[in-house]
Amino acid sequence: MFAQHCAPLGATRALLALAFTAANGLTQQALPIAAAAPATPVRIDPLQQPGDDAEGTKPDRALEEVNDVIDDELREELVGVANGRLSRLFEGLELELITTAPGDTDRESGLGLRFELNKDLVDPLTLANGRSAVAFSLDARGQVFTEQRQNPFDFLEASLRASYFGRTTTSIETLDGLARAGDPDAVEKRYDLRADADELISQLSSDLGLTSLDAAQTPEFRRFVLENPTAVPPDKSIWAWHGDLRVGHESDQDFTNRQAVYGVELGGQLWSSDPGVAAWNLAEYPFALTRWLTGDDQPVPSMGPFPAINLGLDLVDPDQDLGRRAAGEDADPYPRLRAEVGYTSTFGTIQGRTLKASLDYRFYHELDASSGVSAADLDASNYFQFVLSDESGVYASYATGRLPFDVDDDSVFSVGFRLSR
Predict the structure, then answer these.
(1) d(CA 280, CA 308)
(2) Signal sequence: where (predicted)?
(3) Residue 404's closest CA among 169, 80, 155, 125?
């Protein structure tokens, strides 16, 4: 890599040296004299500094200036390469600084750091059909606190995944749209309206700081679509799905409790721009109400993503689980069912700030648990979290329930700031 950077710089140095020589009025006869002067050699190593001799000839001073220019360029390029590698190393990492206040429990308030990592280890391999791919990834999530006793959900998990994923798309054209398909004037008008729609989306995204998907849900864009139904492409429904093989590790903050996990996972999410399909998104109705209460004049469900659903079956190998040990269980592996549902929608706009709402529900259940584990209430755990955030990264959340390794249910309010997004 270093040689690749230095080779073009050497050629650049020679060209700049000739340019400086010509600019200083040197004749062609002067060039071999300068080149043959062994007493004052010209340094061409870009990492070496120019000499301290102030009495050099004009070619010497010119080439020293070239050395300075090339040195700066090389340093900037090397720093850029290092920064690029560092950026790729932390790509997919989200960090949140949080402080908690107990809800209905006597747990102490605390300061912590929540993290989530989703990183492809290699570029996904797209298969021949163009609609599916294979990927290998690393994911991790959890939270750590300055004092472990302050951590209400003391559960860290990380896993390596081999994933097969893809999408299935259906497109719905209205009969009226099909009737106009052969009309050149109607086709041209439709293209013009869709260009206007794209321009409006870009303007709303820029003015309000929204993503394109969120801009399409604003009252301004909805009014435009109602007045110009052909301004948007045909209604589509997209089903995104995945199947994973995973090897993971779960623990608490200080690794007192830890276990290996081997499992399979299936998941999917529906996205639709068809109003008839979007009407079945029951998770969207509460947020249609909050948007209406905060100024949206159309209290209807947004067209877009449905909740994401993941189902998994794991074989858990409890290397060290103090709770199970106290219940009289040995360290034999056991099967576990796992489910998770996640959803994000626009909550509303308050004083010009768009608020996002996110829901996360997780469920873990040991299959065919022993009577000792069931009596100790260790065979199942539920966790629910609601997060309200704005585009600046500030958020507030409420979480309740417990995760594996937690002994009791907890209820916690949190406020925090996203350090990376």
Answers:
(1) 15
(2) 1-22
(3) 155
Question: Closest by alpha carbon to 99, among 108, 91, 88, 111?
Answer: 111
Tell me which long-range contacts 395-400 makes (C-beta under 8 A, separation of at least 24).
395/96, 398/103, 399/152, 399/153, 400/103
- Mapped to the 3 state alphabet, what secondary structure does 193-253 carry? HHHHHHHHHHHHHHHHCCCHHHHCCCHHHHHHHHHCHHHCCCEEEEEEEEEEEEEEEEECC
Amino acid at 244: D
pTM score above 0.70: no
Query: Among the residues of 36-161, which ranges form H helices?
Result: 58-89
CA distance 258 to 280: 41
Burial grade of 324 (CB within 10 A; 0-12, 13-18, 19 or more): buried
Residue ranges of alpha helices (H) inside 294-417 are 322-326, 371-375
Burial (CB count <10 Å: 0-12, 13-18, 19+), residue 238 = middle
Buried/exposed code over 332-350 (b: 16+ C-beta within 10 A; e: otherwise): eebebebbbbbbbbbbbbe
Q: How far apart are CA 219 and CA 204, in angstroms?
A: 11
CATH code 2.40.230 region(s) in the chain? 94-172+236-418
Say how far residue 159 (Cα) sits from the centre of its chain: 17
CA–CA separation, 113 and 407 (whole Å): 21
Q: Are 268 and 231 in contact (CB under 8 A)?
A: no
- Specify the CATH number of the domain 94-172+236-418: 2.40.230
Tens of pLDDT, residue by residue, the chain (421 residues): 444 444 444 444 444 444 444 444 444 433 333 333 344 343 333 334 444 444 445 555 555 665 665 566 666 666 666 556 656 666 788 999 999 987 766 778 899 999 999 999 988 888 877 778 999 999 999 999 999 989 999 999 999 999 999 988 765 444 344 444 445 565 566 667 778 888 888 888 888 777 776 777 777 877 777 777 666 666 677 888 999 999 999 999 999 999 999 999 999 999 887 777 888 899 999 999 998 898 877 777 777 889 999 999 999 999 888 888 888 787 889 999 999 999 999 999 888 888 999 999 999 999 988 888 888 889 999 999 999 999 888 999 999 999 999 888 889 999 999 887 5
